[in-house]
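Our working data are protein records whose layout never changes between entries. Getting from the letters to the tokens is the skill we practise here. To make this concrete, we reproduce a full record directly below:
***
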Amino acid sequence: MRVSRVQAEENRQAVINVASRLFREHGFDGIGLKDLMKAAGLTQGAFYKQFASKEDLTVQASKRALESASGRWTSATATNPEDPLGEVIGFYLSDGHRKERTDGCPIVALGSDVARHGTEVKASFEAGIRTHLDVIERLISQTQDEEFTSKAMAILSMMVGALTLARAINDPVLAQAFLDSASMQIRKIADARMNGIAPGKG
């Protein structure tokens, strides 16, 4: 039975959505096409009617995962206009996010995998990382300049690093300590910058 164009596009989007979650859970190479298509409710034979290759799907799924992550950040900032950065830090550096693999941060879940892939996959992640940096920069300053861009980079690095370390260890107390320490240091950086005080002074 011939599939309509509308249904074909719906199937394609379903595969991208499923892949964006399963790749975060298993890694790009940790799950095969058969299992991906089965999770999307389709047969493996339908894959090449929708995608040129697994690399093509990897690019599309990466974009979708990063769009989802950016949307989560936006929703968090809207929840508490008085302290939007606090809301982002609160959900990102939480024990719940540490345990959440399929819908968690794709930068943490797939960063090392991306480093081994080609330019197209890296480009999708670079775009997503730049979006995250833009959000942080807006949260810590009303102006955009090199100083605040540098601080946004430091904050994102701290957040990604702390979550990566927290996920890599068994001890829940130590894991939480990494998250809490990062949260505290990020607050110091943000508060110092917004008050015009250099970190470590005043």
Q: What stands out?
A: The CA atoms of residues 137 and 145 lie 9 Å apart.
